[in-house]
């Protein structure tokens, strides 16, 4: 794709330069629902949302009711304690909620986060990344979708667990 986003981090200069894809026009936004839309992202034929790209997540697998994402943060994502900032982790989780929901709704259904609870279990350190974010749909109803998420480090240890509810907007 010609407009492929990029993310470049220079730890010596403490700089980050990145670009993101243009937001799809209103007519194309509904195609982000459905498993096929996610497969296009995995295959590199479509982009993640600009926010997801900025947070550094990558969609690595999608199946009905679940997605797996990875995130490899850099120093810019750390808190003053030297671990990945909880807000960054929360952003990963929120992103995973949406993409998991996309696997169980048909094209044309919109969705937005209604509720999000993140439990931070252990600090995530850069040397134990990339992190894996696994989101699984627990319930998909007419108006809401309940999703469970787990964030693990490279040792397979859970760093955060979360649950969220997505509001569905059916045509």
TrEMBL record:
**Is-annotated flag, keyword Hydrolase?**
yes
Top EC group: hydrolase
Please name the SUPFAM superfamilies in this protein's record.
Thioesterase/thiol ester dehydrase-isomerase (SSF54637)
**Gene3D superfamilies per the UniProt record, alphabetical:** Hotdog Thioesterase (3.10.129.10)
Could you tell me the keywords of this UniProt record?
A: Hydrolase
Classification via Pfam families: 4HBT (PF03061)
- Entry EC number(s): 3.1.2.-
- Its name, as the record gives it, is PaaI family thioesterase
Organism this protein belongs to = Dietzia maris
């Amino acid at each position: 794709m010609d407009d492929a986003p990029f993310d470049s981090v220079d730890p010596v200069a403490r700089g980050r330069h990145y670009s993101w894809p243009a937001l799809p026009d209103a007519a194309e936004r509904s195609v982000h629902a459905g498993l096929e839309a996610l497969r296009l992202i995995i295959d590199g034929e479509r982009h993640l949302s600009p926010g997801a790209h900025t947070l550094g997540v990558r969609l690595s697998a999608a199946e009905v009711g679940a997605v797996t994402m990875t995130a490899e943060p850099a120093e810019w994502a750390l808190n003053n304690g030297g671990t990945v900032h909880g807000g960054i982790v929360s952003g990963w989780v929120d992103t995973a909620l949406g993409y998991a929901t996309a696997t169980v709704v048909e094209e044309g259904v919109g969705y937005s986060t209604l509720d999000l609870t993140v439990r931070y279990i252990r600090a995530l350190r850069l040397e134990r990344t990339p992190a894996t974010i696994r989101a699984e749909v627990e319930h998909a109803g007419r108006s809401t979708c309940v999703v469970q998420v787990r964030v693990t480090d490279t040792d397979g240890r859970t760093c955060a667990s979360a649950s969220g509810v997505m509001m569905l907007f059916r045509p």
